[in-house]
Every structure is written in C-alpha cells, then in structure tokens.
Amino acid sequence: MSLLTPDSLGDLLGLFDFGNGCVTRVHIEDPFSPNGATARVLVDARDREHGWPWIPVEFTLTGLRDYRVEHGKGFSGMLYFDPVLSRFPDEAYGDLFYLDFDPVDGPGAYEPVDAGDVVGRSQCFFAAESCSWQALPPAESPRLKLIGNV
After folding, report:
1. What is the pTM for the complete model shown?
2. pLDDT tens column, 41-68
3. In the chain, N or C: fewer CB atoms in 10 Å?
C-alpha cells in the first residue's frame, strides 16, 4: 500500500487514468466506531503505460469521518475525471483528507476552498484521517469479472 497525500496524488495519476473508470465497490468497515470507520473503495482505472488494460485500484481510508456516494442523481459509479485529494481542518475532527471522486468541473478547473465546499458540491467523496492505495489484480474487480475481461 502506498500512502496518498495531495503531494503524492500526481504519482498515482501518472500511473492510472480514472476518466471513464468506474467505482465498483464501496465497503465501510465498523461504521459506528467512535474513532472513525475504514472505507475501502475499489475503482477500475486505465493503465497509462499500456493504454487499454483496466486495473482495479483500491483506496483505503482510515479514520473515516464523513462520506457521500449518491446513486442515480448524476453520479452512478462512472468517473468523468481523475479524483482530487485535498486536506482541510475540520472543527470537530482536526485535519482530514477529502478524496473527491466527483470533482465539480474536473480537477484543476475548480479547487475546493474548504471542507464544506467538497461536502456541498461532490456526489462521491470520503473524508478520513489517512488514505492509501494499491493496485490489485484484474480478477479482483467485480465489473471486470462480469464482462469476462479477466
């Protein structure tokens, strides 16, 4: 697993293209923990080096404090842009990372100014104390299994 920070996000985006990728699984572990739950978010992304192969990339967010995954109101698992990772202070929890899979107008076109901005504008985000990622074998993707691409 590689730690994901706003400074290291560019390294991840250098390896994978998330545009037209899909969120294929969201699993929240221990959602009622006072210390924050853990979220595991699986996203199929394209391998930038080879172009076509879809690779499942798993994000693990620990100390989960807030999240939203809307379905059917616009966001339905399809990603139009690369994710955005920001860090903002939160009044109740301290510094949190906001991993936004549904950035308004795309990454770089709009940068959130605070946590409330991410929460109010995104249809798919996760706020947590830390975030890491790892690439998994294609057989780990439910979507790739379904379409017989593994």
Report:
1. 0.88
2. 999 999 998 876 789 999 999 999 999 9
3. N
